Amino acid sequence: MTSDNGETRTPSRMATDNRWYDLFSRGSRDWLRHNEKVRETVREELPNLISGSDVLSRPSDRTVQVPVRFLEHYRFRLRDDPQEGEAGVGQGDGQPGDVLRRAQPGEGEGGSEGGSGGGELRFVLELKVDDIVDWIWAELQLPDLKPKTTDALTDEDLIQEGWDKRGPRARLDRRRTVKEAIKRRSVQEQSEGEATPFSNEDLRYRQLARRKRPATNAVVVFLLDVSASMDASRRKLAKSFFFWAMQGLRRQYGQVETVFIAHTNQAWEFSEEEFFQASATGGTVASSGFRLARDILTERFDPAQYNQYLFYASDGDNFGDDRRSAEALLGELCRLVNFMGFVETPQNPLEASKSEMGRLFKALAARNHPVGSYTVHEESEIWEAIRLFFQHQAEEAA
Amino acid sequence: MPFTPNSPVSNADLAEYTPKLEALARDQGLDFYPVDFEVVPPSFMMEVAVYGLPVRMPHWSFGVRYIYQYIQHRMGHSRIFEVVFPGNPNRAYLVNNNSLAENTLVTAHVLGHADFSKNNELFARMQSQVGYHIVEQAAERAHRIEEAIGDHGQKRVEAVLDAALALEQNIDVNFAINRPEYPERMERRRAEDERPRSGFQGRFGQLPGEEDAHGTEPERGGGRAPIPPRAEYDLLWFIAHYAPDLEGWEQDIFLSVREESFYFYPVFGCQIMNEGWASYWHARLLREADFLPQQLYLDAIRAHSDVVRPYAGEDSVALSINPYHVGFRMWERIIAEHGLETALRLRAEEDDFSFVRNWLDEDLADELQLFSYTTRQGRGGEEQYVIQERDIHALREAILHPKFNYGAPRVYVAEMGTDGSLLLRHDYVTDGRGLDLDRAQKVLDYVHRVWRRPVRLETVDAKGQPQVVEKS
Fold first, then answer.
1. pLDDT (tens digit per residue) in A27-85
2. Which residues, other chains included, contact B470 with Cβ-Cβ below 8 Å and sequence gap of 6+?
């Protein structure tokens, strides 16, 4: 029965010592490739990414964590049929008519691909905020912004420019001097015998010049209406907008300082952490916030050194009596700042920009002041608002 | 699985037992090509299990499976004991952190597989077509694909692999792996039909009375034959040969995936038989191996009962069957009732379809407490499993259901238009329902990137209404 018709039989072999298999890592390589693809997909999903509420858990961090699903390699599959149900075979105690439930999802899904079967795995992808902002720029095809280079916005700086043979001892450039000495000696040695190690001719001093350079500092005032009508979801929308606007400005300026102001019928300055938790009761008197913003900007931030920005978020309401002073203060602020943005989170989306505040900002825009209004009613609209803001910025810079 | 790693494998002992087990197996009537065993680290084993082959083409979807496997492994849910690649010689991989007892058991198990793959007709037919050195062949193909990545860039190669691997199961194993292209003229059709077909189809595909029905249709005076002349289920083959603008290297990738798919088919189509057979033989060989120390035998048998038990952990019921368990019990009974000679004949002639239909009877199904169930939505929206009346026919079909058509929906090429467009059609009548449309769309997107002309697919929705998915 075991005859092999004369075929010579090589014996089986048992190799137990193959070290080189440790070097295999194709699984990890294909896994990394998968993650690369996820990153590409995430990039295509930018709008969702930005409006996703999970993104901004810690706005001060330089990375955001995005929960993502594994990519599915699609195959033809039959439709799930909730009416007919799926047929299967099981084994164990059970009589016809018994109804069973799965104890814990995802048991024994071994080789099958992702699928809707339980036990779906998710992982968290960490993205650099800077990368995301880069993507936004590429996505919107925005030009790189440049700081305003008007005369008013210049710093004077001492910049090193070249070397001189004379100068104060403090600015002696030793490295350069030694170089000069070496050069001189290498020429001298050919003609004469002994060369002096250093001569006065070798000395080099750094030369400084005064140059004007555009200021690359900026200050951003975030002003938030925290009166009772601004509930948690509205504040979250404002926060998301503030965050991304801030990222855009960070890209533009070397250093960005921030001021956080909340107001009801009076105004307070907060630290960043406290800012978004702040809530208060009281009416809405926007001028109180504008006044504090103006005072802080003029007292602490020299307009010659700082590009100034102000963002105001509210649901648009304001006391009728406050209209005059609000209008006056906004006019003042307009002349102070590079740009002023109004983020409106209206109670009723249809009435956006018909509100008290909306009208004020509209009037300013009509007079060609650098202001912009953005309406955000739902998370999905944040992307559009951000896009508009960045585009305004790009146009201003052009 | 409860598992305490004993002393690391004693290489000398395993090398000593292997030839003895082999001699014992041959004495018992097994007949196999030699096996190249290698003991490898678990990390490598995991890759082999994920890729299906030791060295295979790179693709991101393997990365996903790898991570699933890795997590399962780290959580202790999954252990891989052995992987064997049929061929001449066979190649088997054992894990180096399994105990000596476990690896001894696995060695005997592999000999069972080696016997099965040499003698089973389905295996033998596929192997004679695919070749006896799959590991080396696959490595060679992987190498060519690496070169293609160098020449054409990762993105392009990936696009081809996305499509080819998505259609991996959409082949037609009733035809030989090397097929001639369709005849261009009608009149040659009859000659083509007379090509010898293999297996069942060769013998019964054309019944005597059918001759006439066939004859009437094609005589239309040598007009251009339609492409394809009949429903074509081998999508990989069709795209490889008829895609209007496919480049040589792309065709190579499609045919590589197809060849490996042919190679994998017998493992899929005989899983219950094959795993049962190997489990039967590892138990029997160890029982009769008087050269093994008593303690090692006891440890090995404990491992055996872990492998062939029906449910996980402390459960008393499972919603799937363990092919090792069912197959093992079926062979045990066949050999007890009909003798070894019959069993050896069956392992040569049957596949899972005939094996389950012919040999899983009511008694055994009762004894194994097998039941079929359907799912429904509970009141809370959770999935419920309702046990059906015990009916042996329904039970057999429920076991076999996931195995039809390589486990894939029946999608065939219906027509290739004169403009090069591709029309696929889904046989929803046989499958009992339509396709998942979102996934079908994604697959068409893959296909479109290699077909490069309009691609359409016809199926039905939940109400049975025709649905067309397309990409152009």
1. 888 988 988 888 787 777 666 666 554 444 444 556 666 777 788 899 999 998 777 77
2. B444, B454, B455, B456, B457
Mean pLDDT of B205-214: 52
A316 within 8 A of A234, measured Cβ to Cβ = no
**Tokens 């979807």 appear where?**
B61
Q: What is the dotted CATH code of the domain comprising A215-397? A: 3.40.50.410
Predicted confidence (pLDDT) per residue in B408-466, tens digit: 999 999 999 999 999 999 999 999 899 999 999 999 999 999 999 999 999 999 888 99
Residues of A in contact with B18 (CB under 8 A): 12, 14
Helix (H) or strand (E) run with residue B73 in it? helix B60-74
Residue whose structure tokens are 């900007």: A297
Q: Quote the CA–CA distance of A196 and B266 in Å, as a whole number.
A: 90
Q: Give the residue among B270, B241, B253 at the shortest CA–CA distance from B173.
A: B270
DSSP character string of B391-440: -HHHHHHHHHGGGGGGGS--EEEEEE-TTS-EEEEE-HHHHSS-B-HHHH
State the DSSP code for A80.
Answer: P
Q: Do the Cβ atoms of A113 and B64 come within 8 Å?
A: yes
Residue pointed to by tokens 């096996």: B35
Q: How confident is the model at residue A336, as a pLDDT?
A: 84
Tell me the C-alpha to C-alpha distance, in Å, between residue B104 and each of B2, B12, B96, B108, B274: 18, 12, 12, 7, 19
Task: Work out the percent of chain B whose per-residue pLDDT is above 70.
Answer: 89
Task: Write out the two tokens for A79.
Answer: 């439709």
Q: Would you call A101 and B320 a contact, using CB atoms and an 8 Å cutoff?
A: no
Looking up tokens 């066979």 gives B90
On whether the CB atoms of residues B334 and B342 are closer than 8 A, the answer is yes
In the numeric block, which tokens belong to residue A336? Answer: 């102070």
Kindly determine whether residue B63 and residue A13, on different chains, have CB atoms separated by under 8 Å.
Answer: no
Neighbours of B381 (CB within 10 A): 6
Q: Does A78 touch chain B (CB under 8 A)?
A: yes
Average pLDDT, chain B: 88
Chain A residue whose CA is closest to B55: A26
- CB–CB of A71 and B60 under 8 A? yes
Task: With CB atoms and an 8 Å threshold, state whether B22 touches A12.
Answer: yes
What is the pLDDT at residue A54? 46
pLDDT band at B362 (very low <50, low <70, confident <90, very high): very high
Taking only Cα atoms into account, the Rg of chain A, rounded to an integer number of angstroms, comes to 34
Coil, strand or helix: which one is B413?
Answer: strand
Instruction: For residue A86, give the nearest of B64, B70, B374 by CB distance.
Output: B374
Convert the pLDDT of each residue in B160-207 to its tens digit: 999 999 999 999 999 999 999 998 776 544 545 555 556 666 566 555
The stretch B224-247 carries a mean pLDDT of 93
A67/chain B closest Cα distance in angstroms: 16
For the segment A330-366, what is each residue's pLDDT rounded down to a tens digit?
888 888 888 888 988 887 766 665 788 888 888 888 8
Whether a cis peptide bond, with omega within 30° of 0, leads into B89 is yes
Joined tokens for residue B174: 């009733």
Residue ranges for chain A with pLDDT beneath 50 = 1-8, 53-59, 104-119, 149, 151-152
Pairing of strands B317-318, B90-95: unpaired
- With contacts defined as CB-CB under 8 Å, which chain A residues touch B329? none
Mutate to test the interface with A, among B320, B429, B443 (most CBs of A within 10 A): B320
Task: Return residues 9-38 of A near B (CB < 8 Å).
Answer: 9-18, 21-22, 24, 26-35, 37
What ipTM goes with this model? 0.86
**CA closest to B368 among chain A residues:** A91
The band of B400, judged by pLDDT with boundaries at 50, 70 and 90, is very high
